[in-house]
Amino acid sequence: MRSRTFQEYVQGPIQIGMGLGIISLLARWVTGTTILSSPESMVKYGVFGGIGYALMGAIALFMFSFIGKRVRQDFPVGLTIGDYLKARLHPLGYWILIVILVITSLHILFIQGMAASTLCQFLFDTPLYVGLFFFFAFCVLYAGFGGLKLIHGFAAFQVISMFAAVILIPLYFFVKEGIQPVYDGIRLYHPYMLVINKYDLWSFLFAGLLVGFGQFFFDLTSWQRLFMMEMKKVRLTFSLSGLIWIIFPLSFSSLFIMVIFTGGFTDIHSILAGLANKITTPFFFILFVLCAISAITSTFGACLHSLVSLIVANILEPLQTKKSDQQKIRMACLLSICIGGLVFVATLFYSPNLLELLFYSGNIYSALLAPILVIVFSKGKVADYIPISAVLAIVASYIIQPHVSEFQSIWFSGLASLTILVICTILTLIKNKWRIVKTKL
Questions:
Q1: Which residue of 144, 299, 315, 429 has the fewest CB atoms within a 10 Å radius of its CB?
Q2: Neighbour-count burial for 349-366, b at 16+ CB within 10 Å, e otherwise
Q3: Residue 32: which of 223, 208, 268, 243 has the closest Cα?
Q4: Residue 367 contacts by C-beta under 8 Å, 6 or more apart in sequence?
Q5: CA atoms within 13 A on the CB side of 307
Q6: In the chain, pLDDT over 90 holds for what percent of residues?
Q7: pLDDT by residue (tens digit) across 105-162?
Q8: Phi, then psi, of 16 in degrees rounded to 5
Q9: Do residues 71 and 80 lie in contact, with contact meaning Cβ atoms separated by under 8 Å?
């Protein structure tokens, strides 16, 4: 059924409670990246890297619950994060953050496209563009055309299938193989994975917290869900979502441990192939595939819908004469096709490592962390130097990135943004103090 109004297209027909809120957030944050990057974190940084990956996301969701409650108290009614930013920022700062939001959202869609590409290569013996075309077409139809009502209609099934996979498949493996043989195999073939005092591990965890906080705090879908929830249930909903979310990366990491404990591997594709050989029961193999498809499509669909809603409500509408609700919905559908096509082409012609791709945008999220906190916890409109500080920090971090490690550039980006904010705030206070003194004189 088509949405009757644009607000219904963006927010659905009803205000959601805690149960549907948790399902909606899990459908957004249990992603293709969660399935593939959490095992890559474990392989690259050891078992504690996989555990750290899980903790980073859970802590970020828990911390967002405090931001969410403050936002809803100050701004109880809104459709998107753009509505909130428009109320808190002057025009220059508003448009700076809107542009960054669009860029980061396209990047998230591209990451999910890469996860879909990996899955298609693993599952289908056909040209890559065939599997990807059907994936993007499905996501555009159900999320771009169906709106939030259809997204929530799929969300329950997607989350249930993911839960079934992360609980039943590891249980099946460990009952079949036993825990001791797995531990002995890791000690024999991959002893480095049991080491905790590695410099790279701590660098990864600290940088991951900066990236995770920035990504969760500046995510279109999370903000959109925030405005749909009952105000008194915001903090508990986000906190419980973080607590439940931690199960998924830990379970996916344990799945891949079951593959590599018997020998070596080359890349994520070889691990997936090994997993297929390990899952000899058709039911569990189908369950794993269903889980992976659900995770990728739910995230891509939620992010596509949020991005389209932002563009229509906060970019196109202010630049055009007043449109009817049906005209806005038609624009949203057309935008969904265009964005889906753009990401489809980009995915076909560019194939980076998923974990590297995730952290490549880390400079942006790290630089945004301090400004978004200042915007949320300040009173009234904030000065333009706050979003500008993020832009300066992002540019500076990418300039120095070739000369330092990826984690150091992320730290530098966050520190540079915070430093610029502090300096500008002190100068503003001095300027205001001097103006008061001068007026008295």
A1: 429
A2: eeeeebbebbbbbbbbbb
A3: 268
A4: 214, 389, 390, 391, 393, 394, 397, 413, 414, 416, 417
A5: 28
A6: 17
A7: 998 898 888 888 877 877 777 787 888 888 899 999 988 888 888 888 888 888 888 8
A8: -90, 150
A9: no
Average pLDDT value over all residues in the chain? 83
Alpha helices in 15-126 (DSSP H): 18-29, 32-45, 47-74, 81-88, 91-123
Q: Which amino acid is at 362?
A: G
Cβ–Cβ < 8 Å for 142, 379: no
Instruction: Give the type of residue at 330.
Output: R
Distance, CA of 75 to CA of 150 (rounded, Å)? 27
CA distance 82 to 429: 28
pTM: 0.87
Identify the CATH homologous superfamily for domain 6-354: Sodium/glucose cotransporter (1.20.1730.10)
Residue 422 tokens read as 């502090």
Q: Where are the domains of the chain?
A: 6-354, 361-441
In 3-state terms, the chain is what percent helix, strand and coil (to 5)?
Answer: 85, 0, 15
